Each structure stands twice: as structure tokens, then as C-alpha cells.
Amino acid sequence: MIVKNLYDDVIGTDADVDADQWTSRRLLLAKDGMGFSLHDTLIKEGEDLHLWYKNHLEAVYCIEGQGEIVEQKNGKVHSIREGTVYALNDNDQHILRANKGVGMRMVCVFNPPVTGRETHDKDGSYLLPETD
Ligand code: 9YT
């Protein structure tokens, strides 16, 4: 069994990844062998993230804050607040916005799992690890 605590075991370690627009505290990673990774992510207030996880499926559950997500393929805008979940089941290209003044706290699940220190490439995706 794996038991970790965000404050004791993740914050301030290599699994705590700070980017310009977000901070991702990675609770479970590929090395934990679960087949997914689990992140507690803070989206900084007023930020627009252009994302396109071509290599991963991601589900995101908002537990604090407010914002919106725009589907790039059709321009549809969905508001996000505490209790909203979105699932990028079609590797959907999207824009994620955290409202000014509040930011958002999200629980994110990635399949396949991220391995550790991934940050976005120019398309807003994470690369897969090299395999033989
Ligand atoms: C919700 C989202 O995709 N935020 C960007 C950071 C990413 N989810 C992560 O690695 O936690």
C-alpha cells in the first residue's frame, strides 16, 4: 500500500513542479505502478493555458476556485467551479482559464501516468518517456 501526504511527502520535493501558470503537486506517479498519475494542481489566477494532451487522457476535478474551459474544435465555453469535472476523452485541444482574483485548485488524473517533472511543450502537451 502507498500512503502519502501532500504536505509531508510532496510539497518541496521533486514531485512539486512549479511552472509559470500552474503548480502541480504530483501525488502518484508512473513509478507508483497504478497506471495513472494523480495531481493536486493550482492554476494561477488570471491565466489562460493553451493545452493539448496528445499523448495522454486527463480528467480534472475542480475543488476550489472558478474559471472556464474552451473546446478548441467548436469554441464551446464551459464554466468551471467547485464540483465541476471535465474529462479530455478525445485528447481535446482546449484553453483553460482561471478567473482573475481566485485561481483554481484541481485534482488531475493522467493516463498514461506522468513520470515526474513534465512541463508543457510548445503545443501544450506532455511527451511520453522514451521506450526501447
Ligand atoms: C488542468 C491542467 O491540465 N493543468 C496543467 C497542469 C497539469 N494538469 C499537471 O501536470 O498537473
Describe this structure in words.
The structure is a single chain. This protein is mainly beta and 132 residues long. It has a single domain, classed as Jelly Rolls. 4% of the residues lie in helices and 43% in strands. The protein has 1 helix and 9 strands. The model has no long low-confidence stretch (mean pLDDT 93). Bound molecules: (2~{S})-4-acetamido-2-azanyl-butanoic acid (9YT). The site of (2~{S})-4-acetamido-2-azanyl-butanoic acid has 10 residues, from strand 2, strand 3, strand 5 and strand 9.
CATH topology: Jelly Rolls
The helix/strand series, from N terminus to C terminus, equals HEEEEEEEEE
Q: Averaging pLDDT over every residue, what do you get? A: 93
Give the percentage of residues in beta strands: 35-45%
Looking at the overall shape, the CATH architecture is Sandwich
Labels describing this entry:
binds (2~{S})-4-acetamido-2-azanyl-butanoic acid, Jelly Rolls, 9-stranded antiparallel beta sheet, mainly beta, 9 strands, globular, 4% helix, 132 residues
Describe the protein's topology.
Blueprint: H1 6-10, E1 16-18, E2 22-28, E3 37-43, E4 48-51, E5 57-71, E6 77-81, E7 85-87, E8 94-98, E9 104-111
Antiparallel strand pairs: 1-2, 2-3, 3-9, 4-8, 5-6, 5-7, 5-8, 5-9
The structure holds (2~{S})-4-acetamido-2-azanyl-butanoic acid.
(2~{S})-4-acetamido-2-azanyl-butanoic acid (9YT) binds next to strand 2, strand 3, strand 5 and strand 9.
